[in-house]
Amino acid sequence: MDGKIEVLGQEWLSQGFMKLAKYTVRHERFEGGMIGPFTREIVMRTVAVGVLPYDPIADKFLLIEQFRLAAHLAGMPAWQREVIAGIADKDESHEDLARREAIEEANCKVTDLVEMTRFLLSPGMSNEVLILYCGRMDSSQTTGVHGLDNEHEDIRSTLYDAKEIPALLEHGTTGNGPLMMALYWMQANRERLRKLWR
């Protein structure tokens, strides 16, 4: 549906690291007419970028693992296995952000970025869009513990054989949506990438 939307008001409730706004809106009903006005609180975020580094020669990919308080509070494992990701803190392209985050979080240089997908992380409460890339890497020098001290990061990077993807997905050990999305994409597109990057 591509219906009529009226934003009647916006009020900032918080403008810290997480910006929270209250909107008053009305919108068209599926069966005609308008519904509202009503209010919704929305977490406002800039675009986030994630990258799954992949070595097509060794057929290996890299994941990171770090502490996530929100995961702990949700009753999930506090140390989450993830794709590399971040938000822009300067004027840079999405591709440059992916490359910078790969260096900061995993000391991993990625090239030949291919966009996997872009999606809303939590459309019921936030406008945050995640753009996922697969980036070519040389897996011979990419493991260890990294991160920025001033951001309290303690990030472990680990290589996985591409043949492990089905087991990671089947056993539910991925923990979060962006990683699952990246692994499903890799499972479907791995052979195409290997041909493209050889």
UniProtKB/TrEMBL annotation:
Keywords: Hydrolase, Magnesium, Metal-binding. Acts on ADP-mannose and ADP-glucose as well as ADP-ribose. Prevents glycogen biosynthesis. The reaction catalyzed by this enzyme is a limiting step of the gluconeogenic process. Its cofactor is Mg(2+). This is ADP-ribose pyrophosphatase. It comes from the Bacteria. Residues 44-182 form the Nudix hydrolase domain. CDD domains: NUDIX_ADPRase. Its EC number is 3.6.1.13. The keyword Phosphoprotein does not apply. InterPro entries: NDP_pyrophosphatase, NUDIX_hydrolase-like_dom_sf, NUDIX_hydrolase_dom. Belongs to the Nudix hydrolase family. NudF subfamily. It catalyses: ADP-D-ribose + H2O = D-ribose 5-phosphate + AMP + 2 H(+).
